[in-house]
Amino acid sequence: MDDYQQHPEATEAHLTAEEDAESDAKKTRWVFIGIFGNILGILIASVYEPTPPASRLLGRSPEYAALYTDSYKTKSRSIQVRHSVIGIALFFALAFVSSVLV
């Protein structure tokens, strides 16, 4: 039995944080950062940690808030990196196509 099965509050915090991070993510922004920032954009995406709005943690236990915040940051960073990599891939694909056509 893993920790999430033993602690339903932890499961709720983790799942809710991941859902919120997915809906809050500025995916298009990170694709453009990947396109225009290239490797630097990916580095920024992997370092930058967005924090969840404090209003989502009001009235919650400190343990819930800590688990929620950690899961939110981890999921957000994953989304940022993935979309910035998509951006750099688009950049190289467009560069390749333009070099072939010229």
Report on the architecture of this protein.
This protein is mostly helical. The chain has one domain. Helix content is 80%, strand content 0%. The model has no long low-confidence stretch (mean pLDDT 90).
Beta-strand percentage range: under 5%
Helix and strand run: HHHH
Q: Distance N terminus to C terminus?
A: 60 Å
Shape: elongated
Tally of DSSP β-strands = 0
Structural class: mainly alpha
Mean pLDDT: 90
Helix content: over 70%
Stretches with pLDDT under 50, minimum 5 residues: none
List the defining traits of the structure above.
102 residues; 4 helices; elongated
A few lines on this structure:
With 102 residues, this protein is mostly helical. It is built from four helices and no strands.
Annotate the secondary structure layout.
Layout: H1 3-6, H2 8-24, H3 27-47, H4 62-101
Helix pairs in contact: 2-4, 3-4
